[in-house]
Design brief:
Length: 119
Amino acid sequence: MLRLIKNDSQHEDTLARIYKLMQLDLQPDTEESDELEILSMLVKKYEDEHYPIPEPTPVEAIKYRMEQMNLTDAELSEILGARSRKSEILSGKRKLSLTMIRALKERLNISADILIQLY
C-alpha cells in the first residue's frame, strides 16, 4: 500500500522497496513500474523537505563546471576577459559582472539564477 513518507524509518523501508523493484526487469505501464515511479516521487518529496541541498555559490558552480568540462584556467580567463579577473573571482575578491554572467551562462551552461546570487 502506498503512503506518504513521514519519518526516517519509512524512508529507509521505501528505499529498500525501490531497490528491489530496480532489480527487476520491469516493463513500462505495469503495476510494478508504476509503483517504482510513485515511490521515487515520494522519496524525492521527503528528501527535499528533510534533507534539502542548498544551491551552490557562483564560485562553486564555476569550479564544478570547469572540472566537468576539463577547462583550464586559461580557458576560464578567456571567458571572463582577463587572467587577473579569473583569480579575483575564484578567490571571492571580485563579483561577477553582467557581461561575465552572460558569458558563463552561454559557455559553461550555468543557470543565471545561480550566477546572480549574493556570495
